[in-house]
Amino acid sequence: MSHPSLLPALRNLFGSRLQENVTLANYTTARVGGSADALMVVYSTAELAEVAGRMWTEKLPFHILGSGSNVLISDAGVRGLVILNHAHGVRVEAAGDPPTVWAESGANFSAVARQVALRGLSGLEWAAAIPGTVGGAVYGNAGAFGSNIQHDLVLAEILHREQGRQTWTVDQFEYDYRSSILKREPGQAVILAARFRLSPSSAETVQTQIKTLTERRRQTQPPGASLGSMFKNPPGDYAGRLIEAAGLKGTRMGGVEVSTVHANFFINYSGATATDIRQLLHHVQQTVLKQSGILLEPEIEFLGEWEKLN
Fold first, then answer.
1. Catalytic site residue 178?
2. Residue 129's pLDDT is what?
3. DSSP states of 3-65 as a string?
4. Strand 62-65 and strand 189-197: pairing?
């Protein structure tokens, strides 16, 4: 249910740019989630900074949504404003030493990786199959095939809640496995754009590597509507192996199933709800904990209003 006291303030701030009572399932990779009180689409870093800055000034709640992967939105929806980030400008600087690519935070990270590959520039091959945005990847230290954001990020442009617009080096993000200071302390800053380090190669070599990695990913990860990896890998082990060892492959709850291809993926196979997914996640956690003594930590984030699970 929407929060009626927020809408007049949002209408006053943004007028006809505002969309009200918008179903968010259409904007998530798992195709689940309730409605946002209000939604605005932004198409540039300038617009993103303007909207976020005004929301902070007015002390109104907001959330940023990119590709909608790695985020589970409650069936009860999200109060306040959801900013849908479609700022997707990309600028390749091939003549630099080293060459780099600058991309706005709403750009599809896979598309950025493929664009630099066409220019014969190496460094982001690992990202070519990641189904998320640049901002989401920087926020969560995304990684694959032995590399990650921490390894390749040069700097990022952010808007800080208290300190305004800044440029951060990779060290300022205090990266850890699938984590950053911004993820550990949410609501303090908005990622506007990022610059990544590249190296000269040839288009044929880079594209061949992308094809190899994409094929490997296709063979080991399931198709279908999902959030991506559900749990972080615990030290020295793999979440998928632990889930499979607990006999949970193929387990269903409502419309969602633990993938029979890769146990760390949950597939929305038949009209799943966010509640189905969260309850299955809880069941998997508890079953693995009883069998192995390891409490798996979710890699996904939870957005919206949730009831407490026992």
1. yes
2. 84
3. -TTHHHHHHHHHGGG-EEEEEGGGGSTT----EEEEEEEE-SHHHHHHHHHHHHHTT--EEEE
4. unpaired
CA 225 to chain CA mean position, Å: 15
Residue 299 falls in the annotated catalytic set: yes
In angstroms, the Cα distances linking 102 to 111, 142, 300, 307 are: 13, 17, 26, 40
Q: Going by DSSP bridges, is the β-strand pair 78-85/35-42 parallel, antiparallel, or unpaired? A: parallel
| Domains located in the chain, CATH noted | 6-85 (3.30.43.10), 90-220 (3.30.465.10), 239-303 (3.90.78.10)
* Rounded Cα–Cα distance for residues 177 and 184 (Å): 12
DSSP state of 259: -
Burial class of residue 308, CB neighbours in 10 A (0-12, 13-18, 19+) = exposed
Report if pTM > 0.85.
yes
Residue carrying the six token digits 């999200």? 78
Q: Which amino acid is at 49?
A: A
Q: At 101, give phi and psi (nearest 5°).
A: -130, 135
16 assigned to active site: no
Q: Which of 226, 229, 257, 259 is catalytic?
A: 229
Catalytic residue among 35, 67, 114, 178: 178
**What pLDDT shows up at residue 3?**
55
Of 187, 189, 206, 179, the C-alpha closest to 101 is: 206
Q: What is the pLDDT of residues 87-121, one digit of tens each?
A: 999 999 998 889 999 999 999 999 999 999 999 99
